[in-house]
Amino acid sequence: MTLKLIAFLLFISGNLFSQEIDKEKFDNYINYIESNNGGIGSISIFKDGKEVYNRSFGQRKLINVNYNEDTKYQIASVTKMITAILIFKLVEDGRLNLETKLSDFYPEIPNSKKITIKNLLEHTSGLGNFAIRNSAIWVMEKASEEDIFEEIKKQGVSFEPNEKVVYSNSAYILLRMILEKKYNKEYHKIVIQKITKPLNLKNFASIKSNPTNTFKSYKFIENWSEIKDIEYTNVIGVGDIASTTKDLNIFITSLFEYKILKKETLELMKPIIGKEDWGRGLALFKYDENLFFGHSGDVLGSHSRLIYNPKDKIAIAYCTNGERIPSNILIENLVSILYNKQFNLPEIK
């Protein structure tokens, strides 16, 4: 199939979402990416709680790598959505309050008497990014919990709570530590108890559950070559979970069907339309008039996006372990195909 024909199929414009997924348009788009070594990854789309499209691409370009439909991807900071949900389950059960101060758990942290659980969730705490030390990523090798905690203390805060929104990995490490204190068990065991078992997820696991059959990260330089990524035991509760795209969509669909949290609790997580881009564990993804809620995740070689449109009951999960097209552009194009919008084929560099 020529690129002109692909372009013709993809550039048809329209206005309304169709109840039928045009699988051929999606396949044409993914074929373009795959045939040009544009990436390695998987896409799953759910509509009304059922998977209507699933496609993996690029894996056959990897040398001596075994994989199947159950091979998992590192989902990076999409993990934060899970951590936030687990915090809200404590809130829902009356075991924690959003206005509880960080000092109730970790008074050693600077400004902890002012920082609330809500601040930690919505990136308004003023805390920084423990993973960057002396302008470099230092969590490539295994670090102790004590070293990470000391780095958070050392970095302190850069602004007062509620003064502004600045994405904070340190805040979510502390939320994970609070979860472990409240549940009196390790994070991976909480995930199993509250998420994977109730939802019957077969390919969804925190790093201390020792997930197997998981993709490594790759970079394209003439060919796809494996690269070293961060040490995932250093980012538990922040970016350590591995999953398939299908299990991710089961998870987020279940969330918006109120199978994990009550409706009123989920509303607390969502950003306020017109006022916030970041909520409390959920971010807003706006594509023209189509509003999705979810989270993104990015480490050195793996990237993920998990979003849900409550109006149309559509979930999109995308994971890549070899990226040449920025994930935000790829997702924008997928949404354009879904809603019959015009777009340009991405340039592959």
From TrEMBL:
Keywords: Hydrolase, Signal. The keyword Phosphoprotein does not apply. InterPro entries: AmpC-like (IPR050491), Beta-lactam-related (IPR001466), Beta-lactam/transpept-like (IPR012338). It comes from the Bacteria. This is Class A beta-lactamase-related serine hydrolase. GO terms for molecular function: hydrolase activity. Residues 42-324 form the Beta-lactamase-related domain. Gene3D superfamilies: DD-peptidase/beta-lactamase superfamily. The lineage of its organism: Bacteria, Pseudomonadati, Bacteroidota, Flavobacteriia, Flavobacteriales. Residues 1-18 form the signal peptide.
